[in-house]
Inverse folding.
């Protein structure tokens, strides 16, 4: 299904969903990570990168805008656009060039880069539910829907 929902009672569950995404991921995907501060967007990326075999730290790109990784034969770029005061900064910072055919791009605060940010193949929305979180995944392109199929339910 192009829509899937996961209950994430604790941080370990968010990381596990990241690991599940890692198993399904392929080159050429742009994934938006949507949710408030502290929703678990960076935690999800941490779980994803660790499952791909990344050994070092996974820093939040809040101040650097982008953290690049080469892992498991993927060129993966983790963005955080939170600090943008104007979406033109996306162009000024030259971030467009990262969205190449073979890249995997994971973007926190995608709204801050619109309308310049390339379209998502998949959106992950994280919201609070009690002390935990709920993740809603939505495939928004053919590639994104194929990703959703591979993730399973
Ligand atoms: P964001 O990048 O969305 O601002 P972070 O991943 O940096 O959020 O921080 C999320 C915080 O919430 C961390 O303290 C993390 O341990 C915690 N957290 C992550 N997932 C869950 C969850 N499913 N339930 C409870 N706490 C979580
Ligand atoms: Mg973050």
């Amino acid at each position: 299904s192009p829509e899937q929902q996961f209950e994430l009672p604790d941080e370990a569950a968010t990381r596990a969903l990241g690991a599940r995404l890692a198993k399904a991921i392929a080159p050429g995907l742009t994934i938006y990570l949507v949710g408030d501060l502290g929703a678990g967007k960076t935690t999800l990326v941490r779980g994803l990168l660790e499952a791909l075999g990344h050994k070092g730290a996974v820093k939040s790109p809040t101040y650097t805008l982008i953290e690049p990784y080469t892992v498991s034969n993927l060129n993966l770029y983790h963005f955080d656009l939170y600090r943008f005061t104007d979406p033109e900064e996306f162009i000024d910072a030259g971030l467009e060039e990262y969205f190449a055919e073979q890249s995997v791009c994971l973007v926190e605060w995608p709204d801050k880069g619109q309308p310049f940010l390339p379209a998502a193949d998949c959106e992950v929305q994280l919201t609070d539910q009690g002390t935990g979180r709920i993740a809603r995944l939505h495939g928004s392109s053919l590639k994104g829907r194929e990703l959703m199929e591979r993730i399973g339910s």
